[in-house]
Amino acid sequence: MTVPWLEARPRTRLALLALYYFAIIAGLFVLYGRGDFSTPSFVYQGF
Q1: What is the value of pTM for the model shown?
Q2: Are 7 and 13 a contacting pair, CB within 8 Å?
């Protein structure tokens, strides 16, 4: 499903897409920027 006003404005679509990818990369930096690459404790449940 696409939004008609978004299809009519390719620059706005490109800007929103770039902002979306930037937000994902920024989120990864926030999660892993401290250098702590260990997995969360709930992954290993000690079977």
Answers
A1: 0.59
A2: yes
